[in-house]
């Protein structure tokens, strides 16, 4: 009788590469507010239209051993910080926020607190992602986003964007890029409907809402919008639709 020798095969995995960014999920409730001291009103009023910020976490392994790119549902030990202090320990925030604990929006913070003129809060998120392949927890920390409020007089103009202040691009999540590839290689026929269906927040082409205020009022006419690239403290370059990065620039969107 020949006895077989059992051998344990150990499989090596590449570590996870983590990309994390803050995404404003509420275009009508951006990070910046406008305060009307005469009417004692905020625009937007977060008590009515809360601000929702998602710490979007994406994971990838170079060896293909990780097949779940969006990993918010795996977040643990979730904490939001305001000006470096855990938001749960700040009394003025009590009852003014909640943190989502379910599914793909796990970790998102919903804010119903208005920020008074003169106040400002630098928010960031921290948490852990469990890599079950390697049995390790990976710390996750986002960049910061500022919450501010401007006290407006009637003749003061303001401009804010309905998107994250930090925009990151991942070509692996870009459905529009995949659509372009299929069309270029005659795998599918080009169509406006299919192209529009591929447009989302991960596309290389995206629309960013712009909001202009005069005093305490939103306006959509009587002004022009220009976009500049900051080269240095003393140097700027105006960008136009002649630059390939800009498809269209209007009074209300980019």
Provide structural commentary.
The protein is mainly β and 254 residues long. Among the domains are: 16-153, Immunoglobulins (Immunoglobulin-like, Sandwich); 170-203, no CATH class. It is built from 2 helices and 16 strands. The strands form 4 sheets. Strands 2, 3, 5, 6, 9, 10 and 11 form a 7-stranded mixed β-sheet that branches. The radius of gyration is 23 Å and the shape is globular. The chain starts with 15 loop residues before the first strand and ends in a 15-residue tail after the last strand.
SSE arrangement:
Elements: E1 16-24, E2 32-36, E3 41-43, E4 51-61, E5 75-82, E6 85-86, E7 97-99, E8 109-111, E9 120-131, E10 136-141, E11 145-151, E12 157-161, H1 175-184, H2 192-197, E13 210-214, E14 217-219, E15 227-232, E16 235-239
Parallel strand pairs: 2-11
Antiparallel strand pairs: 1-4, 2-3, 4-8, 5-6, 5-9, 7-8, 9-10, 9-11, 12-13, 13-14, 15-16
């Amino acid at each position: 009788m020949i006895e077989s020798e059992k051998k344990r095969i150990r499989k090596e995995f590449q570590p996870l590469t983590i990309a994390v960014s803050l995404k404003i999920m509420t275009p009508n409730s951006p990070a910046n507010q406008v305060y009307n001291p005469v009417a004692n009103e905020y625009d937007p009023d977060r008590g009515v239209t809360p601000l929702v910020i998602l710490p979007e976490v994406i994971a990838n392994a170079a060896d293909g051993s990780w097949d779940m790119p969006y990993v918010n549902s795996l977040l643990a030990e979730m904490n939001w910080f305001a000006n470096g202090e855990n938001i749960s320990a700040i009394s003025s925030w009590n009852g003014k926020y909640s943190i989502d604990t379910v599914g793909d929006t796990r970790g998102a913070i919903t804010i119903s607190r208005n920020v008074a003129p003169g106040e400002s809060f630098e928010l960031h998120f921290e948490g852990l992602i469990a890599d079950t392949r390697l049995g390790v927890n990976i710390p996750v920390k986002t960049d910061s986003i500022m919450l501010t409020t401007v006290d407006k007089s009637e003749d003061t103009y303001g401009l804010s964007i309905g998107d994250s202040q930090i925009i990151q691009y991942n070509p692996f999540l870009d459905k529009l890029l995949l659509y372009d590839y299929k069309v270029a290689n005659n795998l599918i026929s080009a169509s406006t409907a299919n192209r529009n269906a591929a447009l989302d927040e991960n596309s290389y082409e995206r629309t960013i809402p712009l909001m202009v205020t005069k005093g305490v009022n939103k306006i959509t006419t009587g002004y022009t919008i220009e976009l500049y690239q900051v080269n240095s403290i003393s140097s700027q370059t105006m960008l136009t639709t002649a630059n390939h990065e800009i498809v269209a620039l209007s009074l209300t969107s980019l």
